[in-house]
Amino acid sequence: MPAFLHAISLGVDVLELDVVISADRQVVISHEPWLNPIICRGPANESIQHGSASSYNLYQMPYHLIEQCDCGHPHPNFPQQVALPAVKPLLRDVLAATEALVAQLPSRRPLGYSIEIKCLPEGDNIFHPAPPAFLDLVLAQLNQAGVTARCTVLCFDARILRLARAVNPELRTCLLVEAEQDWFSSLKDLGFVPHAFGPNQITVTPAAVSQIRTQYPSLRIVPWTVNEPADFARLIELGVDGITTDYPDRLVALLDKKV
């Protein structure tokens, strides 16, 4: 929660949130469907051994246990991070807090949300519900918060995106692909043209951008996860439509220089 609120203060226009499901069907913000031993401790403040993280399967833990786990320990890959005690929050609580903060800021446009549903076929009914139930739980929270029109649903799993299109054709969707996945076969397999396409930033080349602009002129290109100023500059020069980053401060500083 502190990071999301800080990102708003930096001036981001979209928050990217990964969501998983708890044992009691709560929508929880978490990058993994388990406790990451690098940044988290267990509900009794115990250390989590590497290799045993999946034993702390969030889909098998009710939220009252999840919220007892401190996941605010500093990650070694982010040495500038400010360490603060933090729990994995509920999606509804983050939406309420971020909407309230933006409403207090003068001249700020309404915030957008990119909601990544952490779903893979091999995880069905093990680390998350099957796609229909997973999507229903997430959309219920977005609808209740009144932010659906400002949301994009992201997923590496095409099943979620096909369902989202069937349930709400107006809902914006984004297909995510890993570095080893071919852009065009992935889009063809999806079966429709999504609102956005999220490739690994290392695969974004002038030739790839030119080709996808020709074949899919309406498709927004939003690469992930871009953290280095040189990559920001390269991608901006290529004309991407958005950038997903762990360092919005760096990106904002670069964009301010270009104004």
Automatic annotation (TrEMBL):
PROSITE patterns: GP_PDE. Residues 1-255 form the GP-PDE domain. SUPFAM superfamilies: PLC-like phosphodiesterases. InterPro entries: GP_PDE_dom (IPR030395), PLC-like_Pdiesterase_TIM-brl (IPR017946). PANTHER family: GLYCEROPHOSPHODIESTER PHOSPHODIESTERASE (PTHR46211:SF14), GLYCEROPHOSPHORYL DIESTER PHOSPHODIESTERASE (PTHR46211). This is Glycerophosphodiester phosphodiesterase family protein. It comes from Hymenobacter glaciei.
